[in-house]
Specification:
The protein is an alpha/beta fold. The chain is 21% helix and 28% strand. The strands form 6 sheets. It has a 15-stranded parallel β-sheet that branches. Strands 5-4-1-6-10-7-11 form a 7-stranded mixed β-sheet, with helices on both faces. A 4-stranded parallel β-sheet has the order 25-28-31-33, with no helix packed on it. The radius of gyration is 32 Å and the shape is elongated. The structure holds uridine-diphosphate-N-acetylglucosamine (UD1) and magnesium ion. Magnesium ion binds next to loops.
Length: 454
């Protein structure tokens, strides 16, 4: 059987997500916990949607409005009483009445399951009534174990809490993903009982009910099938997902010296030919163009960086920072809600907020926009080719027009016209011989002190 062919039967996907996730110790539904900033359920939906099923049904628990909103526009049904994974599928069953085709059952807390693996499982069912996705785990604790017959077909699934010592030693586990014959599913669900250690209706009782040749499709990628039951699991999943994102960026032409130290958000965009040094963090909504260099320890969120710009090391780009082509943003520079022109340089220790900065501006060390008066934010407009000296305060609202200079150390509270010099500081006073006189007086005083002590 070839896996390249798309499925030929109609497909429906049921995602079980009614569990509160008690082991997470959290007020929010388990599947709303995020990986790279996107709820687990939405990662799973991405893969499920890629299969182009006729419908996706999400089983939620009572009082989970945020989950219902997160899975729009898909259908949701509420499982009022959390009586097990089988109980959850039962709640979805009326929506599958008369559905002839494949029903893919997926657990909402297994968010890294890929479209590819789902397709393989669907294809593997063939004419069998059921196929289950299995994987081999070194430590299978907590998972349902797959019991095979001598020919390698599925006989039963035994949950951890119901397993005897011999069964517990089995390392081939149930990942929780099933593909079943939709036409028969309703009848099978009617036969589930809750005579087990947890007193729940298990979907894993299906094989025992079906008693026919059933397929086990084993995925070699155990990462994809990891379930999330605890915050520690969540961190493990985050690690795997970050690795996946790193691989994708490298495949798309992004170089990273130490990819394992670079963290991405689910929506990060980076253009070909860009170079990311170690220890860079991408928050939500960052778009980086081609051939950009981001040096170590930079933190970006909500920022757009255009082609050829150089950022960092130790730069902080905050929401609505737009960095023009070939601009340079150096160490300990923070930029927020500002457009920085092409080729502008803000190389050291600066704050730029609520600012329109023209092309080729030089914004020197320690210069800042004073954008907040304690009540409101104000704009700073800087024209093209402006030179802002070191330690300048530009008190907004203020405009520095094209080609102007602002002298180092100035606090500028008025507009500076084009090509003018703005200077606002006391003239320096030079007192000849002052230092040597001061030093002598101090040394004499010290000598007197030690004479007294002696
Ligand atoms: C389940 C499987 C186990 C498998 C493991 C893989 C059963 C009985 N056990 O165990 O064989 O190895 O997943 O991760 O199926 N849910 C509902 N309603 C319920 C109960 C659960 O919607 O009444 C949902 C949960 O939200 C969750 C998923 O089903 O997304 C799995 O539930 P969970 O309690 O985590 O099952 P496991 O103990 O992990
Ligand atoms: Mg689980």
């Amino acid at each position: 059987m070839s896996n390249e062919h798309p499925h030929t039967r109609p497909l429906a996907v049921v995602i079980l997500a009614a569990g509160k996730g008690t082991r997470m110790k959290s007020d929010k539904p388990k599947v709303m916990h995020e990986l790279a900033g996107l709820p687990m359920i939405n990662w799973l939906l991405k893969s499920a949607e890629a299969l182009e099923p006729e419908k996706i049904i999400v089983v939620t628990g009572p009082d989970m409005p945020e989950l219902e909103a997160a899975v729009q526009p898909h259908q949701t049904v509420v499982q009022e009483v959390r009586d097990g994974t089988g109980g959850a599928v039962r709640i979805a069953a009326p929506l599958l009445k008369n559905f002839e085709g494949d029903v893919l059952i997926v657990l909402g807390d297994t968010p890294l399951m890929s479209e590819y693996t789902m397709r393989n499982l669907i294809a593997s069912r063939g004419d069998a009534p059921l196929s289950v996705l299995g994987t081999v785990l070194q430590n299978p604790f907590g998972y349902g174990r797959l019991i095979l017959d001598q020919q390698g077909f599925l006989q039963a699934i035994v949950e951890e809490k119901d397993a005897d010592a011999e069964q517990k030693a089995i390392q081939l586990v149930n990942t929780g993903v099933f593909c079943v014959d939709g036409a028969q599913l309703g009848d099978w669900l009617d036969k589930l009982d809750n005579n087990n250690a947890q007193g729940e209706f298990y979907i894993t009782q299906l094989p025992e009910i079906i008693q026919d040749t059933m397929i086990v499709s084993v995925t070699p990628d155990a990462h994809e099938t990891l379930g999330c039951n605890t915050r520690s699991d969540l961190a493990t999943l985050e690690g795997h997902l970050q690795n996946r994102l790193r691989e994708e960026f490298m495949e798309n032409g992004v170089t990273m010296q130490a990819p394992e130290t670079v963290y991405f958000w689910n929506d990060t965009e980076i253009g070909e030919g860009s170079y990311i040094e170690p220890n860079v963090i991408f928050g939500p909504n960052v778009k980086v163009g081609k051939d950009v260099t981001i040096k170590g320890f930079s933190h970006l969120e909500g920022a757009t960086v255009k082609k050829g710009a150089i950022i960092g090391p130790f730069a902080r780009l905050r929401p609505d920072a737009v960095i023009g082509e070939d601009a340079k943003i150096g160490n300990f520079v923070e930029i927020k809600k500002s457009n920085i022109g092409q080729g502008a340089k803000i190389n050291h220790l600066a704050y730029v907020g609520d600012c329109e900065m023209g092309d080729r501006v030089n914004f020197s060390a320690g210069a800042i926009t004073v954008n907040y008066d304690g009540f409101q934010k104000h704009q700073t407009i800087i024209g093209k080719d402006v030179m802002v000296g070191s330690n300048v305060n530009l008190v907004a609202p203020v405009t520095i027009d094209d080609g102007a200079f602002v002298a180092a150390g100035s606090t500028i509270t008025e507009d500076v016209p084009a090509d003018a010099l703005g200077i606002a500081r006391d003239p320096a006073q030079i007192r000849k011989g002052w230092a040597s006189k001061f030093r002598k007086a101090k040394e004499e005083a010290k000598a007197k002190q030690s004479q007294k002590k002696a």
